[in-house]
Amino acid sequence: MAPPLTVPSMTAGADFVLRPWEMSDLPLVREAAEDDYIPLVTTIPTPYSDEAAEAYVRRQWDRAAEGEGYPFTIARTRDRRPVGSIGLWLADADAGRATVGYWMTAPGRGQGVAGAALRTVTTWALHELGIPRAQLLVEPWNTASVRTAESAGYRREGLLRGWQEIGGRRRDMLMYARLNGDRPSDDRPPTAS
Ligand SMILES: CC(C)(COP(=O)(O)OP(=O)(O)OC[C@H]1O[C@@H](n2cnc3c(N)ncnc32)[C@H](O)[C@@H]1OP(=O)(O)O)[C@@H](O)C(=O)NCCC(=O)NCCS
Fold first, then answer.
1. Which end of the chain has the least Cβ crowding within 10 Å, N or C?
2. What is the mean pLDDT of residues 145-168?
């Protein structure tokens, strides 16, 4: 078994923090359970129950304890309100690859928060943990996620046909990746006019 991992707290932009899951995050699990898409691509329980939500939070703790990766809650700094989740998963870490997944619930959307969280996790993974490649998979229709990935310096690499089953149907997925040799988009010089 992989060694246990300690999930750190990190800032994501000026107004949000990434931190370990807490049992007080059950309202976030409830909001996510009401989303049409999030339960299809996560183990968020639907229909919601407190018991199933507590088991979800415990699963996040277990994933870190068993070395599977780093699950974070994305929370507003001002009032600690949880608004989403991001995880860095290490199943292929021996091959130099980590996979990222993220979601926001409705009240936190539309402010670019997922992009800020993704930039934080990716920079940390590539430059602090020394992982050569961070990757993520997005369905082609999911423009908000595509924009999120690109805003964090991920580049589109190709379409994986019939890659996985989501909601009872095989789905094509776009592969996005950022390498630790890539220049983050934030650092790109302005385009000459
Ligand atoms: C993908 C997700 C995390 C983005 O969260 P977010 O931080 O609220 O993202 P934003 O609303 O700030 O949108 C990011 C960008 O997408 C654009 N966008 C958002 N919704 C859009 C839509 N329906 N159509 C087109 N563009 C859209 C925004 O205008 C923004 O563009 P910009 O970078 O040019 O400003 C969120 O929508 C979500 O949780 N979706 C459900 C779960 C999911 O799909 N997770 C990702 C799986 S790969």
1. C
2. 98
Which token pair is 98? 């980590």
Ligand 1 and 142: CB distance under 6 A: yes
Q: What are phi and psi of 158, to 5 degrees?
A: 165, 175
Ligand 1: does its nearest atom lie under 6 Å from the Cβ of 180? no
Burial of 101 (C-beta count, 10 Å sphere; 0-12/13-18/19+): middle
Sign of the CA dihedral with 73 first, then 23, 50, and 63 last: positive
Report CA(65)–ligand 1 centroid distance (Å).
31
Architecture of domain 10-185: 3-Layer(aba) Sandwich (3.40)
Q: What is the pLDDT of residues 59-104, one digit of tens each?
A: 999 999 999 999 999 999 999 999 999 999 999 999 999 999 999 9
Cβ neighbours, 10 Å, residue 169: 9
Where along the chain do its domains lie?
10-185
